[in-house]
Amino acid sequence: MRVAVRLLWLMAAALLLAACAGAALRGTGDLGLVIERASGHVTLVNTSSRSAYARIGGLGDLSHASVVYSRDARYAYVFGRDGGLSKIDLLEARLVKRVIQSGNAIGGSISQDGRIVVAQNYTPGGIKAFDAETLELLAEVPAEYAPGQFSKVVGLADVPGNKFAYALFDGGEIRVTDFSDPKRPTTQRYPAGRQPYDGLVTPDGRHYLAGLFGEDGVALLDLWQPEKGSRRILDKYGKGEEKLPVFKMPHLRGWSVAAGRAWLPAIGRNEVLVVDASTWKETARVAVKGQPVFVMASPDGRQVWVNFAFPDNGWVQVIDTLSGQVVQTLQPGKAVLHMEFTPRGEAVWISARDDNRVLIYDTRNYRELGSLPAEAPSGIFFTSRAARIGF
Amino acid sequence: MSNSGIAGRVVAALLLACAMPAAAEPAPARQKELIHMVRQDCGSCHGLTLQGGLGPALLPQTLADKPAEGLVATIVHGRPGTAMPPWHRFLAEEEAQWIVTRLMEGFPK
Question: Cβ B54–A169 below 8 Å, yes or no?
């Protein structure tokens, strides 16, 4: 009897020790967060155990919120629609700091050296740089494109040399701002075309692409040879045909490049456009279910997963990049807003806003591996973004 | 004119009077759908709180001096040359009218 009691005590002590040790030491490589857009919360998740481990509130209007990670992959910077910039510690599962940096923001980015966080704003149109440690304002670059006229900023992406590339929706420009002297940024301007809606930098940091809404085409800038200026690719891809209405703007990021090609959403056409990433010539088009929103390659580039604008936002399609064919069509739930691959791509997490669920799919056999509850989930962001250029 | 004739006309007039706003008022279940649609799907451009994004703010103070018919037409037919798409496939004109009235007085949660 006494032996049994002592054994129980010993076991309890061992358990406690293990629990403490676990809390004290942990990596963040398999962590991430899910934006719950309607309620101003984020849910912190673990992609190994496929579970949620904490929930943090009070983050304001998170519609269209996006996230970047510190280079140690411990802190998440959440950019809210209402101009809020929140720094979250994934290990301690707490809000470290929050500032309201503008009236209306759309996202942000982090510098190559991890010291500067930059927010892109709609109103007042421009970008703002903050110290990544303290969130103190370092510099402000208004997106003035004509005297007294300020543009909404879209497509902000970090590029090598502590620079940031972005586009001006109203101004029709690409800009590259150099923050190597953080308090004295300098900016270069390049023509883009009518209404760039988003932009991306290729995973090697060399090319910046701005997708155009107001005309058929994509503006391309070679950041290794910026003196050559911007040029147009996929010019007039609509061939003058009438466009379908676009009920949600597509998104671009560096995940669009896979298998030596860029996979880009067409505007007003139910197609994914494929261009060779060395010649920048169109090589193919893939017909899909609706207006593509996210066209995302898996980390190995073998698959491209596509979701769609309203009213086709219940569908997800998978393109095999070798054959260029749609190989799978899924209906994960109502109002699919975002997808995120686990770091090496064995699974993809999908948010279904109107089902209040995040679904996890096996990318090999398309089987559902599990799901998590979340209130109107939108963006899903894993820490593997911390080490990628342009994320 | 007989009494019943007058009564009949009064009833008809009353019915008509109620029928007008009633026809413009979607059923409660549909109202819920429309509120969800405006907050979520219009919200992708105008913001969940309708304070603006790629599209302008849709708040009482920003819409105050704009003619309602023009706003209804914008919702139904879109604005060619801009990012505002036409919604007639998903909304009847009276429903767009109902949305504009709600927007101008402060949109329900």
Answer: yes
